[in-house]
Write a structure and sequence with these properties.
- Helices cover 80% and strands 0% of the residues.
- It has 65 residues and is mainly α.
- The model has no long low-confidence stretch (mean pLDDT 93).
- The protein has one domain.
- InterPro entries: AMED_5909-like (IPR048152).
Length: 65
């Protein structure tokens, strides 16, 4: 897990990998299938939100030029 003050890009990678792991767990551990799917979706959405924020920031930076 990245440090709380880590760059957003590091958090984005962390959430993407975390979502992949939970998705794999959902397929392997059928007793926790639905729980793991929930966490996979949650982590994926958190990573996607960071990606949107990074895209918005890069768009704003490009407007100044």
């Amino acid at each position: 897990m990245p440090a709380p003050h880590a760059a957003p890009s590091r958090w984005q990678v962390f959430y993407r990998v975390s979502a992949e792991v939970y998705a794999q767990v959902a397929e392997i551990d059928r007793g926790h299938h639905h729980e793991a799917l929930y966490w996979a979706k949650r982590e994926r959405e958190k990573g996607e939100e960071i990606a949107r924020q990074l895209d918005a920031e890069s768009s704003e930076d490009g407007e100044d030029e």
